[in-house]
Amino acid sequence: MSVAKVVHKEVEAMQIASIEAIVEKRTDILPLFEPLRQACADAICGPPMAVYHYGELPSGFLVEAAFPVSRPVEAGKIRTRELEAVRATTSLHQGPHETIPETIVKLLDYMRTHAGTLGGQREVYLTLDPDQPERNVTEIQLVRHEWDRRLAEGLERTLGATAREQVMSGIEQITPESSLEVYTAWIRDAMDRLDALTDDRVEKYQIVSCCAHVFPGGRIAHLRGIYEQRRDIDDVLQEMYKDPAWYEDPVRQGNVLHMRKVPYDPEGYEQATTPAERRKAYCHCAFVRPYLEEVPSELSPTFCWCGSGWYRRLWEGILEQPIQVEQVETLLKGHDQCTLRIILPLT
Fold first, then answer.
1. Coil, helix or strand at residue 285
2. Are 297 and 291 within 8 A, CB to CB?
3. Burial code of 127-155, b = ≥16 C-beta within 10 A, e = fewer?
4. What is d(CA 142, CA 303) in angstroms, rounded to the nearest whole number?
5. Distance, CA of 6 to CA of 92 (rounded, Å)
6. Helix/strand/coil (H, E, C) string of 286-343?
7. Cα angle 78, 81, 87; round to 5
8. Helices 147-159/180-197 angle, 10° precision
9. Please, which residues have CB within 8 angstroms of residue 165's CB and are 6 or more apart in sequence?
10. Counting Cβ atoms within 10 Å, is residue 29 exposed (0-12), middle (13-18) or buried (19+)?
11. pLDDT per residue rounded down to tens, the chain (347 residues)
12. Terminal Cα-to-Cα distance of the chain (whole angstroms)
């Protein structure tokens, strides 16, 4: 196996015809391509690919096997949709599909030390040879979660274009090749500039919560379906309690949910011998962990509104109504855990 260099690219939007499947391992995807190829026929205009939808299921992976197509194809389980444009960190993998994780690990190691964070995964099978798998060539695309773009959009939507320009000052110098240290320093300064513009908690919530990673849509749709049956929050909570690793066992008091985030590294959290080690093992955010050595931190607690966006998307998706989130404890304020209150609309 050889690993080519890391390439950053902008992947254009495209029309794909795809089949969704639940798989246990990567090679389970391959049998899906032949019936898809036959159904799409002369509409195919690019190599086969897989789009991974992580976190949608308690076990296994939800994957789309797909071909780019020049016209819609609808047949049986095949559906045509627009695959959105993304920015991706990529590398070519040559060899059997069983060894693709080795390249993914190297790409992830690269992303952990550079600007940006993971937002998804795609694989494009440039050469697919079932008889001689050592000839396979696969482009691994790790989709970048564009935290700064989301911040810019939230700023303009909430405070206007001038505020966006002020807070986003210097972002043009940040590239995918920038180090994590350079990027987190820019984030720290951006939060300071935001704090200088407003001390309104609601405005900060509206701006920064939009930067959070996107909660898996399939999970939201599943819980939304449960809620629609009787419009009962307790029904949703009972379903959540089946999967505490994802939903963290919210405690309800009236229309308020009390949440405590679970540690990112539970074993490291339990074995930590210093407060700084405990905080780093607890925190889920790569942008925050570098600032947890000292308390109070150099990074403003305003940043922690980002984490509230994870719960905002979940509950606004379930209820299809706005909710409020209140920070109670955060690591950046010197606490040893992160807790919050989710205020649901009265029904």
1. coil
2. yes
3. eeeeeeeeebbbbbbbbbbbbbebbbebb
4. 24
5. 8
6. CCCHHHCCCCCCCCCHHHHHHHHHHHHHHHHHHHCCCCEEEEEECHHHCCCCCEEEEE
7. 125
8. 10
9. none
10. buried
11. 444 689 999 999 999 999 999 998 888 999 999 999 999 999 999 999 999 999 998 777 899 999 999 999 999 999 999 999 999 999 999 999 999 999 999 999 999 999 989 999 999 999 999 899 999 999 999 999 999 999 999 999 999 999 999 999 999 999 999 999 999 999 999 999 999 999 999 999 999 999 999 899 999 999 999 999 999 999 999 999 999 989 999 999 999 999 999 999 999 999 999 999 999 999 999 999 999 988 888 999 999 999 999 999 999 999 999 999 999 999 999 898 999 999 999 86
12. 58
* Residue 303 one-letter amino acid: F
Q: Compute CA distances 76 → 12, 64, 73, 141, 338, whole Å.
A: 27, 15, 10, 28, 47
Half-sphere exposure of 124 (CA within 13 A, CB side): 14
Residue type, 159: L
**Entry pTM:** 0.92
The type of residue at 247 is Y
Amino acid at residue number 179? S
